[in-house]
Amino acid sequence: MALWRALALGCVALFVAWTGTGVGGQKKKEMVLSEKVGQLMEWASKRSVIRLNGDKFRRLVKAPPRNYSVIVMFTALQPHRQCVVCKQADEEYQILANSWRYSTAFTNRVFFATVDFDEGSDVFQMLNMNSAPTFINFPPKGKPRRGDTYELQVRGFAAEQLARWVADRTDVNIRVIRPPNYAGPLMLGLLLAVIGGLVYLRRSNLDFLHNKTGWSFVALCFVLAMTSGQMWNHIRGPPYAHKNPHSGQVNYIHGSSQAQFVAETHIVLLFNAGVTLGMVLLHEAATCDMEVGKRKLMCVAGIGLVVLFFSWLLSIFRSKYHGYPYSFLLS
Is-contact 73 97, C-beta < 8 A? Predict the structure, then answer.
């Protein structure tokens, strides 16, 4: 009887010790989580984008427990890195973080942070990351999934596009508020003032308004701008070009058919203009009343422009649509 009583008391003691350990561990986790959230909230109150080094990243982003998401921009902003895209993306990222930090819906569910290569190269190595800028969402539980890495080359780095991605990954909707920019209205006002001044100075002779060549030139410039992808740039906000931070190689043509760089649209606009100029020269050579020698020269120049620039256009098309079998002069 004494033996059974001793066994029972031992089981009770073990159960009490086990439950006590569980409760103590839970309280410890809550204390650690509270300290993390408090630290992040303190830093976020000073600056919307929290700067992290390797130690801070491992403690606040990688290590559990965590009940918040952290959007991290991995970048290389130091001048000697010469990452122009990083600076442009950082400006949009700051706009997004400020819009969230100073909104009435701000909570501790999402924090925005950045890791610079020169301050956290060990983090880049740990994540096997070899390009910048890169945006990754670290969810409250588990590791980032495939969709938690932002498709920068496809979506661009405009704050509005980043906000949509954040909403998809965290269910937190951020209304992007940009600082006022008066450059556009000022330029439009200046243009209208110049046009109005020209019309006023020539108010006695407005025949130039009926000039078909002038209006054709204006319409042609508008068509070239639109067909080169300027509207896509305005909506998506892609980078001007991409520079590999390791090799230093700059790419002006995006390798995918689903995206483009700003420089790429300028190149396409130039090539389309070259083809158009060649067609105009061919038309003039066939219809004008010049000497035969000059007409032949215009014809040869027109054919040369069309062949050369159309070949370059096809080469760009082949580089974006892999497997496209056709080419013209240039492979």
Answer: no
Using left for φ > 0, alpha for ψ between -120 and 50, and beta otherwise, residue 171 falls in left
Contact (CB, 8 A) for 36 and 52: no
How far is residue 118's CA from residue 286's CA, in Å, rounded to a whole number? 63
- Split at pLDDT 50, 70, 90, the class of 242 is confident
* Tokens at 231, concatenated: 């509207």
1-41 tens-digit pLDDT: 555 555 555 554 554 444 444 555 566 767 778 888 888 99
Share of the chain above pLDDT 70, in %: 85
Cα(163)–Cα(33) distance, integer angstroms = 26
- Can you tell me the distance from the alpha carbon of 177 to that of 266, in angstroms, rounded to the nearest whole number? 29
Q: Which two tokens stand for residue 138?
A: 């670290």
Q: Which residues of 285-309 are buried (b: 16+ CB within 10 A; e: fewer)?
A: beeeeeeeeebeebeeebeebbebb
Of 265, 241, 242, give the one whose Cα is nearest residue 313.
Answer: 265
Q: What is the pTM of this model?
A: 0.57
Strand, helix or coil for residue 296: helix
| Alpha-carbon distances of 175 from 112, 135, 159, 166, 167, rounded to whole Å | 15, 19, 10, 11, 10
DSSP state of 330: B
| Of 303, 328, 308, the residue nearest 318 (C-alpha) | 328
Q: What is the pLDDT of residues 182-201, one digit of tens each?
A: 666 787 788 788 878 877 77
C-alpha torsion sign, points 52, 58, 59, 60: positive
| Segment 104-163, tens digit of pLDDT | 888 889 999 999 998 888 999 999 888 889 999 999 988 898 889 998 877 888 888 999
